Amino acid sequence: MKKKFITNLAFLLFLNILIKPVYAFGIDVGVQNAVGSISYGNYFILLNFTLIFQIILDLGIENYNRREIARSPNLLGEYFSNILPLKLILGGVYFGICFATGLLLGWVQQEFILLTLLLFNQFLADFILYFRSNLGGLHMFNLESMISVLDKFIVILICGFLLVNPLTRIQFRIEWLVYSQTAAYLIVASIAFFIVFVRTRGFHITFNPGHYLIFLKRSFPYALLIMLMAIYLRSNTVLLGLLRSDGKELAGIYAQSFRIVEILSNYGYLFTIILLPLFSRMLKQKEPVEPLLQLAVKLLFVPAIIIVCGCIAYRYDIISLLYIEHTEISGMVFGILIGSFLGMCTTYIFGTLLTANGNLMQLNTMAFASVILYLVLNVILIHDHGVVGAAAAHVVTQFFTSVYQIVLAVRIFHFRINYGLLIRFGIFSLVVLVAAFFMEGLDLSRFLSFFLFMVFALIFSLLTRLLQIKSLLLLLQNENFGK
């Protein structure tokens, strides 16, 4: 399992390194610079609003389906036949609830036009995620990896031309980004459906309300967890728009920092895609998960610590390199917000293990407490500190969830606490942070000093044996290494 995890993760990372940074820092940043913070901030508020309610489209179906197909691949035909019509029904519910909530929030016609387009895009994106869950459940990770980046590749082609062409760049509107996403989602959803359909036996559309109720009852804990997580990940920009008269502009400023954190979190999420079916199968077969868990922690947290420390020290340089507006305040926000990446990484590993083990009640208890903490902190801090307060609330909540999940996993699985590993991580984090600020203060070019910091951090990770090249090579050669 460890060899399979390494090889598939490497391929997934390779594809995402090729595509997602170009999308985030070429297209998304280019669009914000072209349309301005207020216009982009309005788009960002509406986008996060659609993402908060996106769980209505899924209700935990994706995670539940990925887990069950991984355990019993022969269920693909039955599940596929029943889930497709169910998701169409959920789509209608999703549109209705979002429109009704938008009316209650007092949004006007201009916002509803953009909201409608974004809702349709989320509807298509959810279908793609469902199709991908089938491929992941069947352990077809390479094919799923290609599907996962195809939509962004198409948007890069379309928006890249519009942003590079001087005539269209001057007239660029935020709606053009949304239109290009719609086209990309339609193409990718069609391709993904065909791939799953070909591998499905006995497929026939089935409208079975009784079966839907049973399925939704089983998937409801997953749905509740995802909805609660979406609230404490996405709602602060909506709150900025509601609580501050300059909320759209502040949301645009927040987006400048959050975009970087989000692209980093996407790489952490890649671990979830592979770890969930692997953990599910290992737990069903009563195989020990601790060796794979420890490997995943090292592979994710060592780069994460290096990145977070580097981003804190070079926060103003990074923001100034990417944006043309509000760079001073954005640098301050980014220096705070980047800390949440470590909390996200914890969820991607320990939360995935707990999900694979079916500990949904405990995770939902954690998520509910996190939502309360998040909303209270945001209401208090946004009022007095604006976008800086929103960033601080986000970081505090992420660290709360990370500690909660680690303690929960240790108690449930009776893991032995590896104090030696914890001490090495502590020393590593402290030394890397000091090195980052030391390198940043050198009288060198910013690129050269940052490069020297990265080289030092990588070498130090090898010296502390948190990363071992020899061990990784042995893992690729021998699947039983480390058991």
Give a description of the structure.
This protein has 483 residues and is mainly alpha-helical. The protein is 86% helix and 0% strand. The protein has 2 domains: 2-416, no CATH class; 422-477, no CATH class.
Radius of gyration over C-alpha positions, nearest whole angstrom: 22 Å
What count of domains describes the coordinates? 2
Approximately how much helix is present in the residues? over 70%
* Series of H and E elements: HHHHHHHHHHHHHHHHHHH
Gross morphology is globular
Can you give the mean pLDDT? 85
**Can you count the helices?**
19
Largest sheet: none
SSE blueprint and pairings:
Elements: H1 2-35, H2 37-52, H3 55-58, H4 61-71, H5 76-104, H6 109-137, H7 141-164, H8 166-170, H9 174-198, H10 209-243, H11 247-284, H12 290-313, H13 315-322, H14 327-337, H15 340-356, H16 360-413, H17 419-440, H18 446-463, H19 469-477
Helix pairs in contact: 1-2, 1-7, 1-11, 1-19, 2-6, 2-10, 2-11, 4-6, 4-11, 5-6, 6-7, 6-9, 7-9, 10-11, 10-16, 11-14, 11-15, 11-16, 12-15, 12-17, 12-18, 13-14, 14-16, 15-16, 17-18
Give a summary of the structure in a few sentences:
With 483 residues, the chain is mainly alpha-helical. 86% of the residues lie in helices and 0% in strands. It folds into two domains: 2-416, no CATH class; 422-477, no CATH class.
Protein traits:
483 residues, mainly alpha, 19 helices, disordered C terminus
